[in-house]
Amino acid sequence: MASSSSEEPRPVRGFLLKKLCNDEGLFALGVSVARVVQLVDDDDQGTQSLAYYVLSDVALTQKILRLANTPKYRTAGGAAVTTISRAISLLGFDNVKTTALAMLLVDTLANSKHAHSVRQELEAALCASLMGRELARLSAWQGAEEASIGALFKNIGPLLIASREHERFREIAALMSEGKHSQAQASQMILGSTYDTLSAAILNEWKIPDVIVRSLSALPPGPLKAPLNRQEWMRQVVSLSMDGARHLLRKHREHDKAELSNLQQRYGSALNLDEGQLPALLANVRKEMDALLDSMQLGAPGEGEEEGGPGLPNVLLLATMTGEEGGKEGAYPSGKPFQARELLLAGVQEVTQMRAAGRSKLNDVIQAVLETLYRSMGFRFATVCLKDVRAGQYRARIAFGEQHVQRQAGFVFALDGSDLFHLAMQNDADLMIADASVAKIRDLLPAWHLRLLPDARSFIVLPLVVQGAQLGLFYADRAEAAPEGVPPDESSLIRALKAQVLAALSAP
């Protein structure tokens, strides 16, 4: 006899949880999810941390930039968004964070043999996260945006079962289709655990904050009372988000009015949603979902799409897309993209627009320029180094690329010297070193650089000098020589980028 959905579920079967958590792909997913969830929007530092994470994944970078360039978010001036820091500014920190989490799920589970079922659960998760975000906007609770993360992971249990234990997933779906068992009852019968309990156990294994894990727990049946605290509000929002997502994504819509009425009766009073607000909210989420799928090139499923059919469904093709700019096919052996000029030009336009708007802080301009150099020229590490008068040193302040934390910490040198970096600043000379292994160049490299970056084969140095004052420099390198060099048109665009920073540094 199946336990009712209101009873305390038995513990998740140990072997099932162990099997899921010992899966190498899912283990890596958990590590990445935990890392992103822990990112906090803390002024400049939060944006930098999120930008570092997104930029470390070329495919994710393409997806976020594509979303930022959709009509809804693109600026009135029409200039393309080319940097992740600008995308975060337009989309919002929490929006980019949740989108990154959703894409982690897509990328990890894309190669499932049961793509149709996985697709349904992925779409439900993404739609629920959008609804959680809309509900969070209506709330006065602090940290309300965590509800969208809870909504995204509400069905992580069904999603992983669909991907890794598909026969059990089908058995649960078959029981539910008979109309005699709820999802909780069916999953309890087949798995020895409700889906909600399994989802919570998985997130606990991934070390996700308890406030998010507890938001997944089931609610009592019937109309809900107004929440007494933030945790109870999150549970209600997460539950409504998933119920609303299932409602929106259901193919057969003949019972729309009855379902909508049931949602209103269950959640309306508790979450202070009147009869007009809930339909409007659902309609807005539907538009957001359509726009998001379109921007990510995730077309609607084809008619008659079946399990095991040829190729991946559209929603899963995202994981294999590298976009217009992606991959080594579009780059020199050094890593420099063939379309460096176009990328630099777009970056110049974006930074110019940022400064013209008059709302960007100096740090925003510097970060946008650094990111443009890093992406447009295909560098593996890029940093900006500024004078620290008190310490009597030049010190790296922001960095992107491989091992950026360690390399930024070690990128420190004295105010005086006669090496390549000091000579560049003393002469205000922009340098592009095509091959650092040449003896005359290597002789000018300081010992700290040889220790910190022994494999740097090509690099760029852009001094920041204002009215004779040596304020610092931009530095970026590759592990390969760059015999293709920097043609005059690219050099002009790089100087234009640097000019925007010099102007910002000179501003009162």
Polypeptide structure, described:
The protein has 508 residues and is α+β, with helices and mostly antiparallel strands. The protein has helices at 14-22, 24-37, 43-55, 58-68, 84-91, 93-109, 115-137, 146-152, 156-164, 166-177, 183-191, 195-205, 210-214, 230-249, 256-267, 277-295, 314-317, 340-357, 362-376, 404-410, 420-426, 439-442, 447-452, 488-506, and strands at residues 381-388, 393-401, 412-414, 431-433, 458-466, 469-478. A six-stranded antiparallel beta sheet has the order 3-2-1-6-5-4, sandwiched between helices. Strand 5 (458-466) and strand 6 form a beta hairpin. Helix 5 packs across helix 6 (93-109) and helix 18 runs antiparallel to helix 19. The radius of gyration is 26 Å and the shape is elongated. Residues 1-10 and 301-329 have low confidence and may be disordered.
Distance between the terminal alpha carbons, to the nearest Å? 76 Å
Strand content: 5-15%
Pattern of helices and strands: HHHHHHHHHHHHHHHHHHHEEHEHEHHEEH
Rg is 26 Å
Backbone shape: elongated
Structural class, please? Answer: alpha+beta
Average pLDDT metric: 82
What level of helicity do the residues show? Answer: 40-55%
Largest sheet: 6 strands, antiparallel
Strand order of the largest sheet: 3-2-1-6-5-4
- Uncertain stretches of 5 or more adjacent residues: 1-10, 301-329
| Number of DSSP-assigned strands | 6
The number of helical runs is 24
